[in-house]
Amino acid sequence: MPMLCRLAASVAAAASAAVLTVAAAAPADARESSSTLEITVERVLADTVDRFWLNCAPDFGTHPEPHAACDRLRTLDGDLHRLSPEYVLCPGDHDPVRVEITGTWQGEDRDFTARYANSCSARAVGGPVVPVDA
Hints:
Elements: H1 2-25, H2 28-32, E1 35-43, E2 48-56, E3 60-61, H3 66-75, E4 97-105, E5 108-116, H4 119-126
């Protein structure tokens, strides 16, 4: 029985070493290129909250348009503050949308919160990263 235990321990050690070798062999930029964000969209007056997650490189997630959202984030170099509310030509409906985005972009922490006047302004400034029509 001791021989069987030593054999099992040897196999486990070899498997662990193989996993560590593969992880160490991956280029640093490949490990850091992945970006994962959680996007929370709260429609204040409707009292609804939707949560989406978005992974870029490769692009996927529960976000309704992961490729379009990741493409937009890439053009912004991951600078979420460029999604900040600004004056846009939208109906004057008072229907606030609160957005929170947290996670990482290419290995760097991101934390963004904004309040848009309504879905139109959230779509105009934050789209397609902010999925207000989902």
